[in-house]
Amino acid sequence: MDVASNNSKASQIPNPPTPITLAQAARYWLRLGFMSFGGPAGQIAIMHHDLVEEKRWISEKRFLHALNYCMVLPGPEAQQLATYIGWLLHRTWGGIIAGGLFVLPSFFILVGLAWVYMAYGSLPAVAGMLYGFKPAVVAIVLFAAYRIGSRVLRNTVTWSIAAAAFLAIFVFKLPFPVIVLTAGLIGFVGGNIAPRYFKPGGGHGGAEKGFGPALIDDDTPTPPHALFSWVKLARVTAVGLALWVVVISMLTLRYGWDSAFTQIAWFFTKAALLTFGGAYAVLPYVYQGAVEHYQWLSPVQMIDGLALGETTPGPLIMVVTFVGFVGGWTKEAFGPDAIFASAFVASAIATFFTFLPSFIFILLGGPFIETTHGNLKLTAPLTAITAAVVGVIVNLALFFAYHVFWPSGLGQPVDWLSVLIAAVALIALFRFKAGVIPIILGCGTLGMALNLFH
């Protein structure tokens, strides 16, 4: 009886998956690039379903171990997780292909949408859809503040950090990097003095389910290419820095340091290092630089770009592609006869310099994480930074609401129709748990109908 029972159990255990080639993996990463909707949570859920449960390329424990590392890095964690798993499976080129294909479809889709926006945005149907997008964005940003806040604001200390961050940017107009660095310092000190106030709320639990043996299983030895060594660390650092220096030097020599192309490269390098807490966290910094300082685009165009970014696959930080495109379009770096070429090159520069640090961080830190399998000790600074981000996002929502609800200025009449659309969107998000894409498309369709039949 025991023998029969054991045989029955053994027959239920799936066979180990067959090794996959780089070409097979690349086809998956490209498909993922077209279907990675739903923000980081949705993208990570898709990868977990595909890679842990169905394909069994990696075990859940190793998947979560990689994810925890990506969560403490600046940059889009879902794209970095894809890069990490691709690197673990197929060395450096595997990581580059995985991370690159994760964002490439979104890049070309956003370039196309940005071109339609700039060339045909004044058409009644397009203008009406964009009118509906704007109040939806106000609701989505407010909901983002709530969602992040409910996860991290769990005591008086984190609430105080969020409130101080809001006052710092709303009242005192402090730069976003100063707020992030100050919050990180508070978290570092507070985590040692009173760690109970800086415990992360929620997060990713341990692996509980078993889905059968995986290519990279719990007890699979670290592949030789993923072992840490100082030589590898020095090599990756040198190549990453050289790549950045060569490209930005070429732009400087060809167009000058003050040109739109070079300034886009420099600005988005800085932005890439500040994306703690997700894309919404760095949007205020992008606004401060792209709208107020460089004037590459207007506040309304920034709102429209965020709406378009919400409707495309890939990380939300891909909104930088839109910002770069509009900046290249308005600055006409190649002259008035080559506006699209200027915009396309500028969007490519913005995207390249935004994502370059993500690849470097994974290739630099991955071997250390794989070799040690230790617990990360950066949760307290990250908790404080995320708390500050909540206050900054509330400020961003108020900024968007001002431009949408009072389009002619604060002393002018309120656009009550926009207020109504935003209220409906908020109800759909909070009460009915509607997705971001249906909200955006629904509000856009409503705005187009109102504009055409008004």
User: What is the approximate shape?
Assistant: globular
- Estimated radius of gyration: 23 Å
Unreliable segments (pLDDT under 50, ≥5 consecutive)?
202-208
What's the total count of β strands? 0
Proportion of beta-strand residues: under 5%
| Helix coverage percent | over 70%
- Cα separation of the termini: 78 Å
| Mean pLDDT across residues | 86
Our count of helices gives 17
Order of helices and strands: HHHHHHHHHHHHHHHHH
Structural class call reads mainly alpha
Largest sheet, in brief, is:
none
Structure keywords:
454 residues, mainly alpha, 17 helices
Summarize the structure.
The protein has 17 helices and no strands.
What does this structure look like?
There is one protein chain. By secondary structure, this protein is mainly alpha-helical. Helices cover 73% and strands 0% of the residues. The protein is built from 17 helices and no strands. Helix 7 (156-170) crosses helix 15 and helix 9 packs antiparallel against helix 14 (339-372).
Topology:
Blueprint: H1 2-12, H2 22-35, H3 39-54, H4 60-71, H5 77-120, H6 124-152, H7 156-170, H8 176-193, H9 230-255, H10 260-272, H11 279-293, H12 299-310, H13 319-331, H14 339-372, H15 379-405, H16 416-430, H17 436-453
Helix pairs in contact: 2-5, 3-5, 4-5, 4-14, 5-13, 5-14, 6-12, 6-15, 6-16, 6-17, 7-15, 8-15, 9-10, 9-14, 10-11, 10-13, 10-14, 11-15, 12-13, 13-14
